Amino acid sequence: MINHLVIIGVGSIGASLGLALRREGFVQKVTGVGRGVENLKIAQQRGAIDEYNTDAEAAVANADMVFLAVPMGTMRAAMLSIKDSLPANAIVTDGGSTKGSVIKDFAEVFGSTTQFVPGHPIAGTEKSGAAAAIHDLYNGKRVLLTPDAATNAEALNVVREMWQAAGANVEEMSAEHHDTVLAATSHLPHMLAFGLVDSLAKMDDVDEIFKYAAGGFRDFTRIASSDPTMWRDICVNNREALMASMDRYLDDMKEIYAAVDAGDADKLQEIFSTAKATRDKFCS
Amino acid sequence: MINHLVIIGVGSIGASLGLALRREGFVQKVTGVGRGVENLKIAQQRGAIDEYNTDAEAAVANADMVFLAVPMGTMRAAMLSIKDSLPANAIVTDGGSTKGSVIKDFAEVFGSTTQFVPGHPIAGTEKSGAAAAIHDLYNGKRVLLTPDAATNAEALNVVREMWQAAGANVEEMSAEHHDTVLAATSHLPHMLAFGLVDSLAKMDDVDEIFKYAAGGFRDFTRIASSDPTMWRDICVNNREALMASMDRYLDDMKEIYAAVDAGDADKLQEIFSTAKATRDKFCS
């Protein structure tokens, strides 16, 4: 149970949490903070927040919990905006896609990560804004919490309970491990898909190239329709793990490249069979 | 109108054409050829063929049209099996995913491509066998025909009418262009997806890596569940165009790689924005 939750950034991620927690009676009061009053009004009308405030510093003055649900690129600015008024016993958590960078920012801005519980709900909607919020967005989804050695144990418990109240399955891991895993299964695939579409876009007969693209191509490139700003920020904030992931991938691709070049049918079948068996095992 | 159509390889591709043409009354008689009698019986029961024969040489002796619907890896063997009995005025067409290699095989086996109309229906089902055939598989789908200079014009007309009777939109292009376009939009993406899953499968914590994979990853890697044998054969048969496609892609990826490495936010946003705009334009 949380008395006063302040959600900074009332997009689909922030507003969906507000909707779920208010529905479950897990919060007494939810304040939404954002720059767009129209969006804040929608959030209020939809029942995601009780009240709104465009001034983050004022909004958090009596907060028990602050949820930073802003894009990665403005995470540090959001921290700076509440630095001077955040109560010493308030818990801060976030929903950012990379965790090492957020912990580093928090430590630099606040001098300690004691009251910070870094988090990453692995859920999202393709649409943005409070209008796209849904109360069961997190139901049955994973939320990864990445506390560091300084994180207060009770704060961690409260954040875990908050996400569980929203229906999520909460797991803990180190920020480093989180960033490595997400680089491999999310950030790297996005680079490959953006890269493919970008490469095709440069071809002379791009119109015709896409004309004959079938269903498999659409599935494969769907993630290349993701928000460019969000992905720019993820790349900048998870640079190290993403570089390691790209290096490993490009190195492994040399095997397929060499096998195609040599017309090595046995090798190709071996590689493709391993990939199919792995994919079928884990994504059935 | 075709009097006697012989379909060699009564899988979902071949049997779906039989179903469609018999339904439309475009054929007098359809003979199915395959090795598995069980599958041939299913094709007959489902109305995809009138009769079946496990002997290709005997089956084509009175054929007006032969549809080679076997996997790429057995295309040449299928040609060799009908070489001695194929009537001089019979038309041969195929459904193979690469076209240059099939034309080369036909020219080598028959000494001339006059009676050969190479084709590629861009449609398919994930399931295989005659049981997976559907009468409207080709309805509204593209079929690419890639005649060469020697292809008989009347034969080309008949094959075009046959696919149109099955509801397909027929287009013509050179085999070389076909193989380049398909390498870019189909064969290359398959390599990247197989490569990604294969790369992740080699990681120590593969179970955990996949555990946190979200919907985007599933979409992106769906094509890595494709038939390894089919893709082995496509790689071998379209080696040249696929190598050119991989070279171009890997070269273009250097730009993203360098931008991530340098933390070049502007460059990353530019690349991702171009990719998103291109994908949204063509795959909306």
Descriptive report:
The structure is a homodimer of 284-residue chains. Chain A is of the alpha/beta class and 284 residues long. Helices cover 53% and strands 14% of the residues of chain A. The first copy, chain A, has two domains: 2-173, NAD(P)-binding Rossmann-like Domain (Rossmann fold, 3-Layer(aba) Sandwich); 177-282, 6-phosphogluconate dehydrogenase C-terminal like domain (6-phosphogluconate dehydrogenase C-terminal fold, Orthogonal Bundle). Chain A has a six-stranded parallel β-sheet with strand order 3-2-1-4-5-6, sandwiched between helices. The first copy, chain A, is elongated and about 70 Å long. At the A-B interface, helix 7, helix 8, helix 9, helix 10 and helix 11 of A face helix 7, helix 8, helix 9, helix 10 and helix 11 of B.
Question: How is this fold's topology laid out?
Answer:
2 copies of one chain form a homodimer.
Chain A: E1 2-8, H1 12-24, E2 27-33, H2 37-45, E3 51-53, H3 56-59, E4 65-68, H4 75-82, E5 91-94, H5 100-110, E6 116-117, E7 119-122, E8 142-145, H6 153-165, E9 169-172, H7 175-201, H8 206-211, H9 215-221, H10 228-237, H11 239-262, H12 265-282
Parallel strand pairs in A: 1-2, 1-4, 2-3, 4-5, 5-6, 8-9
Antiparallel strand pairs in A: 7-8
Helix pairs in contact in A: 4-5, 7-11
CATH topology of the largest domain in chain A: Rossmann fold
* Uncertain parts of chain A: none
Share in helix of chain A: 40-55%
The secondary-structure element order of chain A is EHEHEHEHEHEEEHEHHHHHH
Q: Profile the largest sheet of chain A.
A: 6 strands, parallel
Oligomer: homodimer
Intertermini distance of chain A: 37 Å
Number of strands of chain A: 9
Strand content of chain A: 5-15%
Radius of gyration of chain A: 21 Å
- CATH homology superfamily of the largest domain in chain A: NAD(P)-binding Rossmann-like Domain
Gross morphology of chain A: elongated
Instruction: Identify the biggest protein-protein contact and residues per side.
Output: A-B, 84 and 84 residues
Structural class of chain A: alpha/beta
Task: Quickly count the domains of chain A.
Answer: 2
Order of strands in the sheet with the most strands of chain A?
A: 3-2-1-4-5-6
Q: From the 3D coordinates, which CATH architecture of the largest domain in chain A would you assign?
A: 3-Layer(aba) Sandwich
The pLDDT mean of chain A sits at: 95
The CATH C-level name of the largest domain in chain A is Alpha Beta
Treating each run of at least 4 consecutive H or I residues as one helix, how many helices of chain A? 12
